[in-house]
């Protein structure tokens, strides 16, 4: 497993309480006391690699009045498994000691507040996004696996079948600076920009993705052995899977009459890159030649 861990980029902080440092910005604030754990509260974690459609999934799941799914808890700052455990316990309300001593990035603080508010307003299911490159694997093996089993956490693994499209989306995000948008006009404008792919590293990137998926599948098998409920969702049919995922989260939860209410109206995300890759990649011929006669060549066709 150590070899697999080396494939995942991450920043590791020194052990101990989260430090007050310039990395967290001048507006970082202390964490408030978590509210007491509600009886029969259901916990969930959405696990995925970057650029796998979790923004859409989070918004759509949260349209249900009993579900509150938040964005990436560890998207900013430097973390290690010990610190992440403390913040996860604060998020789910299972930790009540020493929380005043934690100082967190603003975005993490905001997510904690939003989740707490949603629970206070009656959400029976609460969860957040955890990206694979945010130390999920070391956390699972050091504390998260047993913790998830003990607290009945439900794990949703979101995977892109076409890994080339995921890598392209990551390149596009870095080059355009736009990851998601609810503005159709902006989506059309950004989506019309052709993206240059780094073909010298593309085979290594694809191989790395496959190894990471293999590591995740081993974790999912371990989760099932521990009694953790697991649901896999594929990016390519995410919209069609929404009802299945909602049922997965709501089954045996404390959601009652609110569960029969209409879904909330929220601004949906507009797909930025809907065209085939050959129309989106500036150095298309170079990419095509690089992938010719490899196991990933089929990914060029979408």
UniProtKB/TrEMBL annotation:
Top-level division of the source organism's lineage: Eukaryota
PANTHER family in alphabetical order: PROTEIN, PUTATIVE, EXPRESSED-RELATED
Record-given protein name: Protein-tyrosine sulfotransferase
